[in-house]
Amino acid sequence: GVATAHIILSGALFLASIWHWVNWDLELFRDPRTDDPALDLPKIFGIHLFLSGLLCFSFGAFHVTGLFGPGIWVSDPYGLTGHVEPISPAWGPEGFDPFNPGGISSHHIAAGILGICAGLFHLCVRPPQRLYDALCMGNIETVLSSSIAAVFWAAFVVAGTMWYGSAATPVELFGPTRYQWDLGFFQLQIEKRVQQNIQQGQSLEQAWSQIPEKLAFYDYIGVWEIF
User: Fold this and answer.
1) Domain residue limits at 190
2) How many helices and strands (H and E) does the chain possess?
3) Which residues are within 8 A (CB) of 84 and not within 5 positions of it... i.e. 6 or more apart?
4) Residue 73 forms beta bridges with which residues?
5) What Pfam families would the database entry show (predicted)?
6) Beta-carbon neighbour count of residue 85 at 10 Å?
7) pTM
8) Rounded CA gap, 107 and 36, in Å?
9) How many other C-beta atoms lie within 10 A of the C-beta of residue 73?
């Protein structure tokens, strides 16, 4: 069901983008004062913001929490116990911990509610004429270029989580990060476990044989990330 939902959603987005690309000059709105065809860009923004907020809220409130979905992939810091489970939202300061999966649910719920409210606001409230002219809200180039700020912020966050790791980028699904290799994260854990096994009376060969294959593999493929 999850795979089917993602395939259908991505396919719909592809079709929508192609349709809008072909019909880029489509005029869906009319100026209420003159009844002339015109693109009401603030209203278009409100529609997209409302729909994206609804999708964001649904993901956090239903998919991640397991109310209507499987949950998300969670694991330990070393990527050894990964599994799918429902996640409860973390509304306290711990929700800001990038390695706390509860923050994923609470973030999407909060951001979704904000997006829904902001979308409804832009659908129902018209901007003053001075503000409309000052921000060039009727200029499609200005509207599109202003979205760079939002896209840049999202790209900045994704790049950071992929470099340093987070609950949204588990090792089993995305592989070790460069930051983990620079710290010798898996190598230190392997050496620690070997020393503990030796202290328990095991031979060096026995101690190394107790190391999980996943842990050794993560350290091994981390070497190739350097090159």
Assistant:
1) 178-226
2) 10, 2
3) 70, 71, 72, 73, 74
4) 84
5) PSII
6) 11
7) 0.78
8) 41
9) 16
Q: How far apart are CA 83 and CA 62, in angstroms?
A: 18
Q: What CA–CA distance (Å, rounded) separates 172 from 202?
A: 29
pLDDT value of residue 23: 75
CB 46 within 8 A of CB 120: yes
Q: Which amino acid is at 114?
A: L
Query: Does residue 75 fall inside a structural domain?
Result: yes
Taking 50 as the pLDDT cut, the residues of the chain under it are 226-227
75 shares its domain with 182: no
DSSP 79-105: SSS-EEE------SGGGG-TT-THHHH
Residues 182, 114 share a domain: no
CA atoms within 13 A of residue 77's CA, in its CB half-sphere: 7
pLDDT in tens, 34-43: 776 677 888 8
Sequence-distant (≥ 6) Cβ neighbours of residue 129 within 8 angstroms: none
Instruction: Kindly report the number of other CB atoms within 10 A of residue 130's CB atom.
Output: 8
Compute and round to an integer the Cα radius of gyration of the chain: 24
Output the CA angle 84-89-93, nearest 5 degrees.
Answer: 125
Instruction: Tell me: do 142 and 197 sit in the same domain.
Output: no
Amino acid letter, residue 19 = W
- Same domain membership, residue 160 and residue 182: no
CA nearest 82: which of 194, 163, 183, 167?
167
| pLDDT number for residue 158 | 84
